[in-house]
């Protein structure tokens, strides 16, 4: 594998992580209201949570 090929792979990986980080910027903040959602408990049961 050539040096330039490894460099290209590192660039792609860096862009991927930048993309993932940009998604977390738009994440909800503590105290924000959300739509109804489901949680799974430790026994695999599903529970709907809502306001």
Helices and strands in order, then pairings?
Layout: H1 3-25, E1 37-40, E2 46-49
Structure description:
This protein has one domain (3-49). 45% of the residues lie in helices and 16% in strands. The protein is built from one helix and two strands, in the order αββ. It has one helix spanning 3-25, and strands spanning 37-40, 46-49. The longest helix is centred in the first third of the chain and has 23 residues, at 3-25. The mean pLDDT is 84.
Q: How much beta, percentage-wise?
A: 15-25%
Number of domains: 1
- Please report the number of helical segments: 1
Indicate the radius of gyration in whole angstroms: 19 Å
Shape: elongated
- Write out the strand line-up for the largest beta sheet, numbering strands in chain order: 1-2
How many strands, which pairing sense, and closed or not: the largest β-sheet? Answer: 2 strands, antiparallel
Approximate helicity band: 40-55%
- Class from helix and strand fractions: alpha+beta
């Amino acid at each position: 594998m050539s040096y330039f090929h490894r460099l290209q792979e590192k660039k792609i990986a860096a862009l991927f992580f930048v993309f993932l980080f940009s998604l977390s910027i738009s994440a909800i903040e503590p105290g924000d209201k959300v739509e109804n959602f489901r949680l799974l408990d430790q026994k695999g049961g599903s529970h709907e949570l809502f306001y």
